User: Fold this.
Amino acid sequence: MQDVIGSMGGYRGVRAELLVVLKKAQPLTATELAERFGLTPNALRRHLKVLEEDGVVRYQREVRGVGAPVFAYRLTEAGEAVFPRRYAAVLASALEALQTERGGRAVANVLAREWDALAIDAGPVLEGLPLAERVQLVAELLTARGYMAEGEATSAAGATLRIHNCAMCEIAEQFPEACDVEARELSRLLDAPVARRTHRFGGCGSCSYDVGEHAVTAPAVTATDIDDSSDAGANAPLAGGLTA
Assistant:
């Protein structure tokens, strides 16, 4: 995670960590953030104010079940752009030309090649490891490539992989094939069934995958689904992705 923080447009210390926490679990109130950092809400607000003035953070009024509305913070578009992206403009231009000449399948084949390289590098290390260790190692490898991923065991034969920062987000917006390739190649890399559980393009703050025994084919959860299933009295973020 320090590799991610170290590449965040000059932000350091608490402010860099605030951006990371919001990236992973937005929206969050000043009180919720203060609890995570062990500081007072007023101390956190000073840092948030600077980030707001920089245009990377904004707050908005939210209704969370019963009770008074709260003001919750989230990243702006500029804040999202602080996190690593990989050659998006150049790659998008090249993929557009390829799609025009050869169609969507050719685009998917190109997008799969980087995963092939990852499989070649990681395959010998992953082979023979328990599922939970495979997922954790793949999360570390993805994080090194700008994906800000986390792996977590959910049972003896199941795990969850969460991707908080898609290094190919702009490409995936233009070429949905990228998301299909990602799910397929993760399954191949992990040598286990994989099913997307939450999706950034469904309004969630991250993409998450069930891996192993719980990876059943089902539509990915959207932010609306999370909202609708929330307890009326809950005081948790509604659209920040699923985190344990």
